Task: structure prediction
Amino acid sequence: MSNAESFGVQGDTCRVDILTVGYVEPGVAGTVVLVREDDLIAVVDPGMVSGRDKILGPLESLGVKVTDVTDVVLSHHHPDHTVNVALFPEARVHDFQAAYKADDWYSREAEGVRLSNSVYLIETPGHTPQDISVGFETSDGLVVYSHLWWDSDGPAEDPYSLDRSVLAASRRRILDLHPSWIIPGHGSAFVPNESTPI
Ligand SMILES: [Zn+2]
Ligand SMILES: [Zn+2]
Result:
């Protein structure tokens, strides 16, 4: 079982560790995640935190140096999820439209892109038109990082959403994958259930 901070610790699939649990009010911080599988060492959403030690400390505890990080995934382009991307000088950066490394801009669709055997991107517009979620197929089941939810309570109505029906369709799509856990953009990992907002 998972302790809701680490997933896939047992078994030979990818391992996911939550580096920082985000929050909104007072202040705003994003949930930051590390995933490792084979040669992949990826950070998801290195965004706003109260201090960089909130990212760097947990990384160090897990034995990962910033120069070890091979990839960064940005769920969308709000600064609370992107502002610390330059902490990782060697990383290839992934978003909804491309992968970026040094001065190379490689355009592609995000849907279905695999960063490793068990880690893949899912296009999930709704919070913004350009959101992606990240699926992790772990020994604890499918874990999904998704900003479609800020925390387990939703919000039911996302004030940033330009089209409520698009948000609902993406939320439904993720729930239809029957994830064991959802890691939201600004909260702790939760187990989705009937009361999870759509
Ligand atoms: Zn946002
Ligand atoms: Zn956010």
